[in-house]
Model the fold of this input.
Amino acid sequence: MRRKASLILLALAVFFAALSPLLRWYAFPRLAKVPANAYQAMVLEAKNATLLDYGTMTARTVPQVTIVQTLRGNVEASEEIERTAGRDVVVWDGLSYVQGPDGTMVSKVPERYIFDAHTQEPVHATGETVDGDPVRREGLEFKWPFLTQKRDYEYFDAQARLTAPIHYEGTRTFRGVTVYYFEQTIPWTRVPMPKTMPVTGITPETVARTGTTRWYTTVRRFWVEPLTGAPVYGEEIHREELRGGTLLGDRDKVTAFAGHVKMREDYIDHTVAQVTSHRTLVLLMTSHLPWGCLLLGGLLLSLSLCLEARGRRPGEPAPAEPADPGPVTA
Done:
């Protein structure tokens, strides 16, 4: 009986020991992915910002500029792309809506971001756009990969339509969460005018005819939770200028927007709580379950060997042999 129990325990020990690396290196890369129907909204604010009054074409200081960013998963588009891509794909339809202190629209820029659900690498397909213009993204945008590493990444800038390094600047603690801090600087770059302008009758085409151009620079900062690859906080030191042309009269340039853009406090709390819950799930797959299976396998192996040793313990009396009946006589 002991020998049978020992073999059962040995088989279970081998099973759990083999399951440990399978969970970490096989199951996790296939199960960890961004859901295709994800939706999130983020509100950012720039207090005491500089904003251009398009009516007078003069810059003025305003108490606050608000940027509402939304990302909505497009399930139908992702399923259509998956048929030809041969992998799990996520399509995010995003919108960056900027409004002044009185609630009037300053600009709105839609974009479609297509990426691999597991690795967050861009997937190039029809519909990949920023403000209606086709683009070919390289590098990350919005989210880092699961198990983010301590290194620089390539990050796509939607304003400039270019990819530039975003540098790992160290490990920090943000609201009790261990994060990796990344920073990217985009130097002054000429960028397109938004297709939706705040003044009726002014379009990118009418501005282009005046010879006036739009320029932009920013310092972009992210605090990224490394297991999930999700930013828990982000901010930008953002500046835009209009330069040259007859639209500005005798001026060489005018500030269109300048401000330190930060996440609103209530959205910080919500994001930290959401990322913390997702972090627990990733930690379960990458650490708790694999190590738990390995330890359980070791415990079962010890019990199996213990039972086997007890089954063969020396000093036990040998089984009695039958007595010799002696010679048989007639």
Observations:
- The helical segments are 2-31, 75-85, 204-210, 265-311.
- Residues 32-263 form one domain.
- The radius of gyration is 31 Å.
